[in-house]
Amino acid sequence: MASASAINREQQAPYYKGSSWLLGSLSELEKDPAGFMETMLRNYQDVVQFRLATESVHLCIHPDAIPHVLHENHMNFDKQVFDYKMMGSRLLGKGLLTNDGPFWLKQRRLSQPAFSHKRINAYSKIMQECTRDFLEQWRQKDGQTLDMTSEMAAFTLRIVGLTLFGKDLVKESAEIGEVFSRANHLLTRRLFSGIPDLVKFMTLDFKLRKAAGGLRKVVDEIIEERKGKEDQYDDLLSILMQARDEEGRGMDYAQLRDEVLTLLLAGHETTANALSWALHLLSLHEEEQEHLAADCKAKCNGQVPNFEMFKELEQTNRVVQETMRIYPPAWSIARRCKEEDEIMGYRVKSNSLVFLSQLVTHRHPAFWQDPENFRPSRFSPEESKGRHNYAFFPFGGGPRLCIGADFAMMEAVIILSSLMMEFKVEPVRDEVDMELLITLRPKNGLPLRIHRRK
Ligand code: HEM
């Protein structure tokens, strides 16, 4: 935190009043979160304050504000905020995403080896195999219209199940995807409902607990199947099951279950959204689609790419990055400011909420020219030179940077390159809107027609 004497107590961030004297901006954010974020970006460039019922919020829009929260002074910004608390108490328990403090650090250190360069190399082979199976399925569906959000979710769920837990979830994937999706909706709606509508609140809560119960059953099965065979695998599940603390104690069952559930959820839904949005944007930009297909064909010679080819597939990397700039799958990060602090010269009182939003910062007009336009060449080395480190932060930053960032990039590049080499995607619907839940997804799915290339 900034030293108390150094804080400029006069300098308050501009205040957005909101439509309700009682709830501040809560109902605006609930009704149309994308519209609300757009209004913030249109009217403010640095930091803006608003109120969500009793909570005072600072939204950091300028990239200069972000490293202070995520990195330089991260100890002063914890996860004691309503969305992580709700996710924790209703669904993910004390898994990596929702955990905090020294216990989080211990668990993070335990899990980290499963995401090393060497492990990602090993996972890429499984990703390749799954992609080959998936291409075979798509060949049977040539000419059909498919919902990309469910296609991609099933695909990435299978990959995360096999790589991290050695379990093929192919049969369960439709059901799991459905329950995850329901939990995502319920969590978001539950977050915004409160005392004013107690019946809605209770109903949502009941449904959410039921969905979470279903998911825990799947995780129980995964763990049960592994018991006694921990030393025969070297994936994340075995690492977690064999981990011992200084006193030789293993992780208790509830903690193990929370970690597995967190990785199943965090490890598939975001990547599936990135891929769905990429296919959507490519379907609207035929030239970019053809350019990408040609580049992949030239570099991979029709083969599903491997670990070594990842870096060479520059065009696919750029398409994935540009997609996550426009449609960041994790669109906001929330923290609570523990002690009074200062962000970009503005005073932030202790206990206030601090929001960072990739959705607004990735479209900040001072850092991105024509921010609404899809132009993957923005991520070429020439154009990226000198860009602010936090103008683009799809995976967060600092010590809580996404543990699966390299995993996700490898997976997205392998899948997208392979699909583009063999298939063309065509839009079906005129408009595709964003749905801002815990993650950012296409509203009402994303139907696209697929055609096999000649
Ligand atoms: C395109 C795909 C992905 C995106 C955009 C993404 C984004 C993020 C972001 C922004 C955070 C930080 C949240 C915060 O600071 O509050 C995060 C954390 C996390 N992500 Fe990802 N993620 C992706 C894929 C993955 C994958 C593939 C995995 C696992 C296989 C994963 C597992 C996690 C976990 C466990 C955390 C919590 C880390 C911690 O706090 O120690 N994510 N992710």
Description of the molecule:
With 454 residues, the protein is α+β, with helices and mostly antiparallel strands. The chain has a domain at 1-92 and 331-393: Cytochrome P450 (Cytochrome p450). Helix content is 50%, strand content 11%. It is built from 17 helices and twelve strands. The strands form four sheets. Strands 1-2-8-5-3 form a five-stranded mixed β-sheet, with helices on one face. β1 and β2 form a beta hairpin. The longest helix is centred in the middle third of the chain and has 29 residues, at 198-226. The structure holds protoporphyrin IX containing FE. Protoporphyrin IX containing FE (HEM) binds at residues 96-97, 108, 160, 262-263, 266-267, 270-271, 274, 329-330, 333, 394-396, 400, 402-404, 407-408.
> Tell me, what is the CATH class of the domain at 1-92 and 331-393?
Mainly Alpha
For the sheet with most strands, the description reads: 5 strands, mixed
Contiguous helical run count:
17
Cα distance spanning the termini? 60 Å
Strand content: 5-15%
CATH architectural grouping of the domain at 1-92 and 331-393: Orthogonal Bundle
Shape: globular
Strand ordering within the main sheet: 1-2-8-5-3
Helix content: 40-55%
Bound molecules: protoporphyrin IX containing FE
User: Could you name the CATH topology of the domain at 1-92 and 331-393?
Assistant: Cytochrome p450
H-E string: HHEEHEHHHEHHHHHHHHEEEEHHHEEEE
